[in-house]
Write a structure and sequence with these properties.
four-stranded antiparallel β-sheet; 10 helices; Serine Threonine Protein Phosphatase 5, Tetratricopeptide repeat; about 240 residues; alpha+beta
Length: about 240
């Protein structure tokens, strides 16, 4: 079974695990009793948590802008490994097996608190750039639900890439109907490819009017082709 622990060696020389226990050979008599406190993580600074635990608690309570929506063992370790040495504390070690570092332990509150659609789109773009496709889909979907037509378009693009062609087509249409020029052009082209020339001309015309140069060129080519075809052709 996969196991993992984030281990920090304190200034006093004790080893502290992410589970909140400290191991030490001092202060223990043969009967098994210990002279140390019952809550070693609060031993320092008059009952306050030791620095590693304070940083961990702060991360869980407030989140961080440096990682995605969920805090995994790996991202928690990376955060502590960056912050603790900068404050004069030892760098923690991550000891684990298999892919346990990917295990999500908590929601990143700095990310889950995003409520502004523009910030949602930016977060989705950031996650896509670092390879978190699922996170990007989540935030594009949230922004799309808030009415962002560009998020609808990008959501459709990612769904198309993932093979969800039906949902991709629905979001592309919603984006076009919401006024996204690029989606109008894409919908016009896809309608042309499926033989619906009437709808293709409609959406290419809207995209051209919205200032998409390629749409104006495609519209001209489509009209020439329709003019050269019999009247019954392309009326689907």
């Amino acid at each position: 079974m996969p196991r993992a622990v984030i281990k920090v060696t304190s200034v006093a020389g004790a080893s502290e695990g992410s589970h909140g226990r400290t191991s030490s050979s001092q202060g223990r008599d043969p009967s098994g009793r210990t002279d140390g406190p019952r809550h070693p993580e609060r031993a320092a600074e008059g009952g306050r948590p030791d620095p590693p635990f304070r940083e961990l608690l702060g991360l869980l309570r407030h989140g961080t802008d440096d990682t995605a929506e969920f805090l995994t063992l790996q991202t928690i370790h990376e955060h502590l490994a960056r912050v603790l040495p900068s404050k004069g504390h030892p760098r923690p070690e991550l000891r684990g097996t298999h892919t346990v570092g990917r295990l999500a332990l908590a929601r990143n509150r700095a990310r889950s608190a995003i409520s502004d659609p523009d910030a949602m789109v930016k977060e989705a773009g950031r996650l896509e750039r670092i390879g978190d496709g699922a996170g990007a889909v989540h935030w594009y979907r949230q922004a799309a639900g808030a009415g962002r037509s560009d998020a609808m378009r990008e959501l459709g693009r990612l769904l198309e890439r993932d093979g969800n062609h039906v949902q991709a087509g629905l979001w592309r249409r919603r984006a076009a109907e919401s006024g996204d020029p690029t989606s109008m052009h894409e919908l016009g082209v896809s309608s042309w490819h499926t033989g619906n020339l009437t709808e293709a001309e409609l959406w290419l015309g809207k995209a051209a009017a919205a200032g998409v140069p390629e749409a104006a060129e495609d519209l001209e080519r489509l009209r020439r082709r329709r003019k050269d075809q019999p009247a019954s052709s392309g009326s689907a």
